[in-house]
Amino acid sequence: MADDDRALRERLAALEAEVKADADTQRARKAAALAKLRDQRVTETAGGALVVRNRAPADEPVRRRARGSATIDDDDRGRGVELEDLGGALELASKANRVKQELARRPGKGEKNWMISGVASLVLGPVGWLYAGSLREAAPATAAWLLLAGIASKLLPTFLIMPVLMVVMPLSAIAGVVYALQYNRAGKRQRLFDDKDGKKAKAKALAGVSVRARDKLRDS
Questions:
Q1: Is 127 a member of any domain?
Q2: Per-residue pLDDT at 138
Q3: Is residue 195 part of a domain?
Q4: I need a labelling partner for 122 at 20 to 30 A (CA). Which of 16, 68, 110, 172 fits?
Q5: What does the DSSP assignment read for 116-176?
Q6: In 3-state terms, what secondary structure has residue 66?
Q7: Structure confidence by residue, pLDDT tens digits, 65-97
Q8: Nearest to 178 by CA among 190, 166, 169, 188
């Protein structure tokens, strides 16, 4: 019985040693495979970096030129916009200076006082336009204004009329001032709402009609 137990223990020890040896062999193989894979990756990475370094000098000037041209185009476009803005600002400043000089100058003989025109247009509405404005515009506007004022005073309460007057009357005063300035520039009454483009279009249309009529008479 004791011999059997001893033999069994010896077999178990031999089996344990064999299993341990197999495990050590497997670990050694795994470590060798990992080391080989690591060396392969390092070699590939080094080779790729070398290729990129070799190609970089050929591509870099093109990229620099592309970036440089894009920067130049953006700079030129920005300068053009700045010049346009500067020109518009100078033109606006010049107009503002001329208007300021006209407002500061005392009206001479035969000229209209812009302050009188503005105050009259502020208090009386379009009726004040008769002082310096074009009669073709001021007279109809005055008639319409008086008619609307009479109707509104009878139909609408005061609290509804006042907000409208607070908007309309300042606009009327501005129109009165502009009428006076235009009068002093031209030496006569000028229309504020003159449709020059419409007149040009009508003149061209009439010219075209006359040409076609003349051609028809020639053919007949």
A1: yes
A2: 93
A3: yes
A4: 110
A5: HHHHHHHHHGGGGGGGTS-HHHHHHHHHHHHHHHHHHHHHS-HHHHHHHHHHHHHHHHHHH
A6: helix
A7: 555 555 555 555 666 666 666 666 666 666 666
A8: 190
Q: Note whether 80 and 136 are same-domain residues.
A: no
Q: What is the pTM of this model?
A: 0.47
**Maximum pairwise Cα distance, the chain:** 150
Could you tell me the two tokens for 131? 């002082």
**Structural domain boundaries enclosing 89:** 72-105
Give the separation between CA 178 and CA 38, rounded to whole angstroms. Answer: 88
Domain-located, residue 11: no
Tell me how many domains the chain contains. Answer: 2
Q: What is the pLDDT of residue 67?
A: 57
Q: How far is CA 54 from the centre of its chain?
A: 46
Cβ count near 128 (within 10 Å) = 25
